[in-house]
Automatic annotation (TrEMBL):
<dbReference type="GO" id="GO:0006004">
    <property type="term" value="P:fucose metabolic process"/>
</dbReference>
<keyword id="KW-0378">Hydrolase</keyword>
<dbReference type="InterPro" id="IPR000933">
    <property type="entry name" value="Glyco_hydro_29"/>
</dbReference>
<dbReference type="InterPro" id="IPR057739">
    <property type="entry name" value="Glyco_hydro_29_N"/>
</dbReference>
<dbReference type="Pfam" id="PF01120">
    <property type="entry name" value="Alpha_L_fucos"/>
</dbReference>
<dbReference type="InterPro" id="IPR008979">
    <property type="entry name" value="Galactose-bd-like_sf"/>
</dbReference>
<dbReference type="InterPro" id="IPR016286">
    <property type="entry name" value="FUC_metazoa-typ"/>
</dbReference>
<comment type="similarity">
    <text>Belongs to the glycosyl hydrolase 29 family.</text>
</comment>
<dbReference type="InterPro" id="IPR017853">
    <property type="entry name" value="GH"/>
</dbReference>
<feature type="domain" description="Glycoside hydrolase family 29 N-terminal">
    <location>
        <begin position="51"/>
        <end position="386"/>
    </location>
</feature>
<protein>
    <recommendedName>
        <fullName>alpha-L-fucosidase</fullName>
        <ecNumber>3.2.1.51</ecNumber>
    </recommendedName>
</protein>
<dbReference type="GO" id="GO:0005764">
    <property type="term" value="C:lysosome"/>
</dbReference>
<keyword id="KW-0326">Glycosidase</keyword>
<keyword id="KW-0732">Signal</keyword>
<dbReference type="GO" id="GO:0016139">
    <property type="term" value="P:glycoside catabolic process"/>
</dbReference>
<comment type="function">
    <text>Alpha-L-fucosidase is responsible for hydrolyzing the alpha-1,6-linked fucose joined to the reducing-end N-acetylglucosamine of the carbohydrate moieties of glycoproteins.</text>
</comment>
<dbReference type="GO" id="GO:0004560">
    <property type="term" value="F:alpha-L-fucosidase activity"/>
</dbReference>
Amino acid sequence: MKIYILAANLIKFCCLLFLYFFVFSSCKDPIIENTPIPPNNEDSIPVKVSKMDWWNDARYGMFIHYGIYSVLGGEYIGKNIDGISIHFQSAGNNNSNIDTLKLGMGAGAEWILYEASIPREAYRKYASCFTAKKYDPQAIVNLAQKAGMKYIIITTKHHDGFCLWNSSATEWNISQTPAGTLWNYDLIEPLARATRDAGLKFGIYFSHTRDWMHSGGLGPIPELNMKKYSYAENQLYMETYTYPMIIDLLQRYHPDIFWWDSENPYEEFAIRCNALITNSSTSIIQNNRLSTLSAYQGDFATPEQAMDENTEYENMELCMTVNSSWGYNKFDSGWKRPEYILWCLLRANKLGGNLLLNIGPDGEGLIPNECQHILETVGQWIRTNSDGVYETRKSPFSFNLPYGPATWKEKNNSQQLYYHIFYWDGSGEVWLPGIMNSADEVEISFLANPSLPFKVESVEGIGLRLTGLPSNKPSELCTSMKIKFKKEPKLIEGAREINKAIRLDALGAQIGNVRMDDFDSKPCINWYNGRQIKYKILITHSGLYKISALLAGEYPGTITFDFGNGTKVNGNNQATRGYANFEWQHMGNIYLEPGEYQLMISNKQTNSWLKIREFKLELQ
Ligand code: GLC
């Protein structure tokens, strides 16, 4: 009898084992991205497949900030935690004339609970207004596709701790809202499905450690007089909320990207979180915001709003808002120009990175019209110029060409540089300084106007020169050309001397965290004190060079030109009757020997900032 039971149990066990392997292995994500593709024959080179391949090809994605804060839209009228009546408005561009106004210092409207010191009980009540009745996942996906974006990442839980799905770890979730009833207690699933159905990748944003509503979440909490929780309290928070939520999110949505926010300083938590992700799938990509510790920096860096071109990134995703808030802010009409967004996208691509552009739907789920329009305008441009965006890789040309960045692609044994011109100077000629191949070693075409006629010649010591071009810009937003190399590219960075003058325009600079403006006329840098601008320059003639700057500003100051090895010029700039009045001003003279220089330019204004369009070095 015992033997019979034993045998029966053994059979049961084998069946279960078989079932487990059959059912669960077939449930796995069908994309097995880590399996190397075997070579077809002995001569062929094995193709390496990395989990980053699709991400590197995608180059452009959509970020969505949606939650209870979307209902408030940047405004809170009520009492703060001290019981004092306040009218709070998140900073925006048109909120100047209101009496009871208390402006947040540029904080995104998703921070309103914190910024306006709203009592948690009062904030909780907004759940009853979160309807999501116009939330339309298919429309969001359609917009992403029209915009040319290849993946979508949504906030499943932001710092206010609210979960957009029916988490069993907390009651502070979608089930407490009218949106829950309307959307089967889950706003994430229909979006994930629509995204995947459209062939796009799907990612999850998750604030794993900063939480103002659940006890133990890291980050100062206004209601607790800015108290921060201890290690033990945070440990309990991670056990109670974070780990179960991560498991839940992974099982429900099988995300392609896990986008952590607010780094945790403790190694134990980084190890646990990381293991949950990597054990669930070998193909999930993680960002670098899991931990402050260098060992847990994930698969890509996440500069915010602006990036420093002087940083060496392996993989980088610039995340950026279309106005200045992540969450919906009804007062913020400071929409960025499509040209600016495009310029950020192409600069990110040039560095081998992606742009993740944010939309903030309102409480009902509607995306502001201005935002949709901007996304579509950029998308329209991408459609005709897609070759220079998708599948591009980090460019060997680390400095920009005059008037814009250049992206790079190496595919099917051919090498291509895509030069994106954001200022068309009307001269009928375009220089490609530093491309030293002869004219017959390259094939040049304009992406949006393949039949545009022009002549190409190679000018010794400078590079290629295109003439016979129209004086009006051929494309809206930006004119892009493809330079296909028939032979090995011969690139010399820093070659810029044309007719005994070296012109260094704003778009051609290597810049850190600075803003580019005036895309409607001639782009300039909004230059604050202490921010550096760099150019690599090649001096071919020794002699005295006169340095001047084309600038506009309301205050005087100094501009320092540092050529390295102690060779410096300090120039004085004068006020120019406002930011609309650009003037050439003389900065000083310098004697330079032939050679390669890393020119670093910095400024110190007595007040405010300076607009800078161009520098010029002229051989005397
Ligand atoms: C910051 C902000 C947050 C926003 C995020 C996007 O960490 O705290 O509000 O979600 O950046 O990158």
